[in-house]
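Summary for the steering committee. One of the milestones for this cycle was to obtain a three-dimensional model of the protein with tryptophan bound, which we needed before selecting residues for the alanine scan. The sequence and ligand used are listed below.
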Amino acid sequence: MKKEKIILTGDRPTGRLHIGHYVGSLKRRVELQNSGLYDKTFIFIADAQALTDNIENPEKVRQNVIEVALDYMAVGLDPMKSTIFIQSQIPELCELTFYYMDLVTVSRLQRNPTVKTEIQMRNFETSIPVGFFTYPISQAADITAFKATTVPVGEDQEPMIEQTREIVRRFNHIYGDTLVEPEILLPDNAACLRLPGTDGKAKMSKSLGNCIYLSDTADEVEKKVKSMYTDPTHLKVSDPGKLEGNTVFTYLDAFCKPEHFGRYLPDYPDLNELKAHYTRGGLGDMKVKKFLAAIMQEELTPIRERRKEFEKDIPAIYEMLRKGCETARATATATLDEVRKAMKINYFDDAELIAEQVKRFGQE
Ligand code: TRP
């Protein structure tokens, strides 16, 4: 049988999704969903994973499930083509996690660079919740339960995919070929790998207040772009400007397409010319920001409008999620059955086992 090509990815519902999520992953997902190259697409809201570092704040997670679902629909994820579901509604994932825990050592988890950074960022050092510490294992369950072959995520998720691949190899080595090794699919544009915050800080984060959200109003987007971090030494228009670390140009690298010049900045043939002028001196920040703002509005307006439409029928969104959970659960259950069979813990369906034991006890 030809191996199916299956996409799976998800997001923690800890806030509305922002343009970092969009260029880093969401946009690609929609393209993949529509490409016809994949047999199945699973997209899920990782509420259980979000609880691993939000245990004091479960209401935040609960509220953001619907926000993320709305963002998904707004960017064009389509429940007719993708199964959209909520992690906590698939209890089979917990059982898989429990078995996988035996395949991973504590020191291996301690070496996971993403978990390391997250522990520092959250000041967990001396009181790391066990569930948080082991979330890479539960993530391996998320991925393997659906036999995902392709996981489109940002580069910070690379250690999780590697961890999953190790678990798959270890499981298959011990129990025979059962699980599928997934591959990571990173964004292809360097600027999209990790879009900085509007303040130039390395990462967009709600706590830093440096995000542009998919659900921001046109005014909010305009204001945020106009106040973006550029080159602090570029004081006068005539000063030569630096591109490196200049957020406005990083965003242009991520969003600007050649046709935008014709529409919004016809004095320049392309981004290279714009950059050259800025570096030489004589090009003001405001002009570049206006150009970026126009591009951002073009990209975000349809998303914002679709979101407004979906917000009009919230029960329909929950119903869509409920159906997605049902479909997802059927797949996870089938995989779990195979896993139990491979592990030979399916005692009551195993006629051979019973015959073997009868023999062993000499009751023939
Ligand atoms: N860890 C991912 C994030 O923080 C969310 C996630 C959970 C995920 N399980 C996954 C992503 C499985 C891809 C595949 O964004």
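Key point for the committee: The CA atoms of residues 168 and 179 lie 6 Å apart.
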